[in-house]
Amino acid sequence: MTQDAPALEAFVARAGGQGAALAETGLPTRRVEAWRYTPLRTIAETAWQKAASLSSETVGALLDALPLPETGARVVYGNGQLLSALSALPEAVQQASENVSPLKGVFSATLNAALGAKGLDIRVPAGTDAGLLTLVSLCDGQDVSTHLQHRIVLEEGASLTLYDVGAGEGRYIANPRFDIVVGKGATLRHVKLQRESLSATHLAIVSVDVAEKSEYDSFTLNQGGSLARHEAVVTLGAAHAIAHVNGVQIVDGQRLNDLTSMIHHAAPDGSSRQTVKTVLSDAGQGVFQGKILVDRVAQKTDGYQMNQALLLSEKAQINSKPELEIYADDVKCSHGATVGALDDEQLFYLRSRGVPEAEARDILVRAFLIDALDLVTHEGLRDLLLRSITS
Amino acid sequence: MSDFLKIQGLQARIDADGTPKDILKGLDLEVPKGEIHAIMGPNGSGKSTLSYVLAGRDDYEVTGGSATFKGQDLLALDPEERAALGLFLAFQSPVELPGVNNANFLRTAVNAVRRARGEAELDAVAFLKAVRAETKHLSMSDDMLKRAVNVGFSGGEKKRNEVLQMRLLQPSFAILDETDSGLDIDALRIVAEGVNSLRSPDFSALVITHHQRLLDYIVPDRVHVMAHGRIIHSGGPDIAKTLEKQGYTQFLEAAA
């Protein structure tokens, strides 16, 4: 625990009365199974402080560098504070004020609960299509941390597309939490672009309750941060619920990107789909941890999980941990994992047609990713993610 | 210009599960400008290895000899540089490229070669016009342009796609590696016509085949017989007919 001291002390001090749970668990060490491949020692020795307000110049420069849609509503946070002048909710969306009980036993959630600042708290009324909402969370600073808490509720038959973008400059921790309820027959598309500063740590936790005949359709592009974990805990709590937890990770340099998920089938006739592809170069490290838990009552569950990694260098590393825990006896669950390099024969074919080697490699990497990216159902957002990958 | 493609004493090996295996064992061959030559030979004689070595595939190790094209040391060039110089290999079994749209691939290749040759790149409209003209010529459906490269293509479609690339890249030297294998007679005619249409004083080709049949449609200026990694006999187009009737035995015995 001595290693934790500076970070943990600072967090607990900042948390005041809210810090007891955090003080008790401390920062996870490598002995904690969930963090075995994603060691947090890089954050342990810094006394992370509350971030100061951002200047409008900084915000403007950070926004300009991001692939953002030209249409739809936008809400912008800078260093954990709502920037009202740049923010407007979709007309159909209502402000809400919900009480949230955070997930237990998930470090990112515990940290967020101790230090959380209010973020989005919205409700999409029954039967309403609220369109596209872009949520941009910017950070800039040295040894600072932000812990936004977002709450999104879709009432019966409502729909919303959330484009969730995280970016910044400097050395900071971004630790956002989303608590999402997708009501009966409702649809939430959650498209995330993680492009934090290359010195930053990103620890996101998304917890979703998917109701009867409703759908949570998510895609995460993990592309930035020195260490970045996106963790999703999705509960299909009523019959015929659907969850898509897809993603792509692009890891270069010495960076580590991590997609961790728990899909909990707690009711019959649910369906979950997960395709995660990771491209690693240099000494990049990738982590995929995907658990599918099927309760006894969750008969006729249809679960699919595929994770594939493309290693472009000998020093790159992928740690892949699929887990299926099934208690029902009438289910269809399949999973697969592949790790490979670029195919020499394909590379030679392209080069023999005059395509220079670097361009040929790019073409094949893009080809590897394209069927995952095609799972982004919002065409405009898919194009923005493609642009993010190729820029 | 007699030294268009000139191969002297070429030796090459491949690593076969850790043991080097010599495949080309001192091969000599010259193909002058404007001529079409055929290479025939039994399985395992090294015909495909020759085509890969000339195109620059790096799992073959060249252990001796030389190959020059247009006076340049071919073996010192990257595959893409060989393509820019005008060399084209039509593969025997072209690889599939899932996730790579055929039309985009063709345009990327055409423009890469044009760039390397100092020509202006084709924009989308100009390219589409050029490619449509060619697909019509080759009786290819537009659907094949929309699909991923070679994915789900029949044997004949793959070969036509190779010929389409050849027509678009306008090489000055084409190697056709058993392009006739697996083709019905109509497809064979179309492929042969694709090659014949490129015939000019500035275009040469090396047609590698098992069968005399293709040479009825692409009439070569010379035929070479290959065995055990070398050219063991060369002559006029009538050699092909002799081979068809009598097999390789007499040539193999004469060379032994």
Give a brief description.
The complex is a heterodimer of chains A (391) and B (256). Chain A is of the alpha/beta class and 391 residues long.
Walkthrough of the structure:
The complex is a heterodimer of chains A (391) and B (256). Chain A has one domain (52-342). Chain A has helices spanning 5-15, 20-25, 41-44, 56-64, 107-115, 344-352, 357-373, 379-390, and strands spanning 49-50, 73-78, 81-82, 94-95, 117-124, 129-146, 148-154, 159-174, 177-182, 187-195, 201-210, 215-222, 227-236, 242-251, 256-265, 271-280, 285-294, 302-311, 317-326, 332-340. The relative contact order of chain A is 0.10. In chain A, β2 (73-78) and β3 form a beta hairpin. Chain A has a 20-stranded mixed sheet that branches. By secondary structure, chain A is α/β, with parallel strands linked by helices. The radius of gyration of chain A is 20 Å and the shape is globular. Chain B has 256 residues and is an alpha/beta fold. Chain B has a single domain, classed as Rossmann fold, CATH 3.40.50. In chain B, 38% of the residues lie in helices and 30% in strands. Chain B has helices at 47-55, 79-85, 102-116, 124-137, 143-146, 155-169, 185-196, 212-217, 238-246, 249-255, and strands spanning 5-16, 19-31, 36-40, 60-69, 72-73, 87-90, 97-101, 148-149, 173-177, 204-209, 222-227, 230-235. In chain B, β4 (60-69) and β5 form a beta hairpin. The longest helix of chain B is centred in the middle third of the chain and has 15 residues, at 102-116. The chains are: A alpha/beta (391), B alpha/beta (256). At the A-B interface, α6 and α7 of A face α2, β7 and α3 of B.
Task: Summarize this structure as a short list of keywords or feature phrases.
heterodimer, A: 391 residues, alpha/beta, 20-stranded mixed β-sheet, 44% strand, B: 256 residues, 6-stranded mixed β-sheet, 10 helices, 38% helix
What's the layout of helices and strands?
The complex is a heterodimer of chains A (391) and B (256).
Chain A: H1 5-15, H2 20-25, H3 41-44, E1 49-50, H4 56-64, E2 73-78, E3 81-82, E4 94-95, H5 107-115, E5 117-124, E6 129-146, E7 148-154, E8 159-174, E9 177-182, E10 187-195, E11 201-210, E12 215-222, E13 227-236, E14 242-251, E15 256-265, E16 271-280, E17 285-294, E18 302-311, E19 317-326, E20 332-340, H6 344-352, H7 357-373, H8 379-390
Parallel strand pairs in A: 1-6, 2-6, 5-7, 6-8, 7-9, 8-10, 8-11, 9-11, 10-12, 11-13, 12-14, 13-15, 14-16, 15-17, 16-18, 17-19, 18-20
Antiparallel strand pairs in A: 2-3, 4-5
Helix pairs in contact in A: 6-7
Chain B: E1 5-16, E2 19-31, E3 36-40, H1 47-55, E4 60-69, E5 72-73, H2 79-85, E6 87-90, E7 97-101, H3 102-116, H4 124-137, H5 143-146, E8 148-149, H6 155-169, E9 173-177, H7 185-196, E10 204-209, H8 212-217, E11 222-227, E12 230-235, H9 238-246, H10 249-255
Parallel strand pairs in B: 3-10, 3-11, 6-9, 9-10
Antiparallel strand pairs in B: 1-2, 1-4, 4-5, 7-8, 11-12
